[in-house]
Amino acid sequence: MEGAITPKALLYTRFAREERKLPPLIEDARQNPLVKAETADGTVYVKDVAILTARQHMLVIPDQPSGVIMGSVQEVPLPLLGDTFQAAGDIAKYYESQPGIEQVDMMINFSTDPLKRIQTQPNLHVHILGYGPDDIQKPTNRREMRANPELRPQESEPLNSVIYDLLDQQVFPSVATDPAFKQLFERTTDEHGAITYRLIYGDATFSDSDFPRVMQEIHKRSQEVYNQLASVYFEMDKDGRFVEEVDGRNKLLSQEKRINNVAIYISEHPSLSSTSQRWLQFLANHATDLETVIVSKEQAKGSELSPQERKHVINRFAAIKDLSYGLTFSGIKIDDKYDWRMGYDPIVFSTRGTLAASRGIPKAGIMDSTMIYDPQTLEIVKASERKLGEYLVEKGKQDSSLPYQPGPQLYSESINPG
């Protein structure tokens, strides 16, 4: 029924920590981390987030000695990527031990598209969240999601069938040829029908020496599969790079070429479901460039679209440029123990990102940065972050963990908690 509550779908509203203008994330991390761990391979920063999804919510940001921005797991040197996941795993374990926490998520968004609202920071960063009963409370329904311009793109991904087939038939079988993948992951069922893998060793997986390489292999193979299919629709130059239009979007091939290319692609991939085949054929016949869509909207309006209206059109109708995905490791509390699962969801039209990839309780979010925690709640959040920072620093002293050192944020807040 249209207005029925979607089973277990919960809505959260993100809260700003405080009103402040921040520099780019990597600069803020370098200048004002909670703690940091420096090794010969680079530095891993742990810091707070400007807009909280949950009261227990931190970021881990890798930084190599050269200072060059690293946008994906593929670009981070393996030792530094291992340190990054080690730090994220240390935080996840800490959140697991906190009273009231019901689920822990470790999240990565990846997208290079500057226009779609998927990732706002150009450098790789990992979100770690511990969800308690006060973080996500309100059930939402499909009618409410469809009526809200911000929630509507999160409701569903039109190409779910195609994405499922590509992951199931081309990405994960290829990655599984690496023995480490089979040692770390096993396929499991998911009540929502999404491809899900269980972490055999739970949160210990994040410190496994093979884990970073497997993550890079998933990214690499996904990029290969994406490029192959995207070349069916978009023009490529002699060097195998996509040709861009004036507005920076990839240049569409003619309808005739797309239809012919799709027929060939389907013949070469006969295991694609009939639903996926129909979607590919539909796009071959009906895909159009973004500027044509905008001109059509302006003609209907009788005037030019405002910048905000143009952004809305882009987010609603444009395909995301290049490979884009949400990768989330969800620690789901079952009988006081955490069962960890991996959700890996590429996206093409929606803006769901890591929310869609989260396993356990499905989530939809309103990103309202004007909502600010009251001073009392904010102090509780800051005190919790200080305890986490102190825990990591002590952990760095007591075992073979990363050599965590206190950063300016931990020091200043400890001295002046107000």
Which descriptors apply to this entry?
418 residues; alpha+beta; ten-stranded antiparallel beta sheet; three-stranded mixed beta sheet; 39% helix; globular; disordered C terminus
Topology:
Blueprint: E1 5-13, E2 15-16, H1 25-31, E3 35-39, E4 42-48, E5 51-52, E6 56-63, H2 78-96, E7 103-110, E8 126-131, E9 138-141, H3 142-147, H4 152-155, H5 160-175, H6 179-184, E10 185-188, E11 196-199, H7 211-230, H8 255-268, H9 274-286, H10 290-301, H11 307-317, E12 325-334, E13 337-346, H12 354-357, E14 363-366, H13 375-398, E15 404-406, H14 408-415
Parallel strand pairs: 1-14
Antiparallel strand pairs: 1-9, 2-5, 3-4, 3-15, 4-6, 6-8, 7-8, 7-12, 10-11, 11-13, 12-13
Helix pairs in contact: 5-7, 8-9, 10-11
Please tell me about this protein's structure.
The chain is 39% helix and 21% strand. It is of the alpha+beta class and 418 residues long. A hairpin with a 7-residue loop joins strand 10 (185-188) and strand 11 (196-199). The longest helix has 24 residues, at 375-398.
Write the H/E string, N to C: EEHEEEEHEEEHHHHEEHHHHHEEHEHEH
Strand content: 15-25%
The assigned structural class equals alpha+beta
**Strand count, sense and closure of the main sheet?**
10 strands, antiparallel
Low-confidence stretches: 1-9, 413-418
What is the distance, rounded to the nearest whole angstrom, between the alpha carbons of the first and last residues?
49 Å
Helical content class: 25-40%
Our Rg estimate from Cα atoms comes to 22 Å
- Characterize the overall form: globular
**Total helix count?**
14
Mean pLDDT: 86
How is the largest sheet built, in terms of strand order? 10-11-13-12-7-8-6-4-3-15
* Overall number of strands: 15
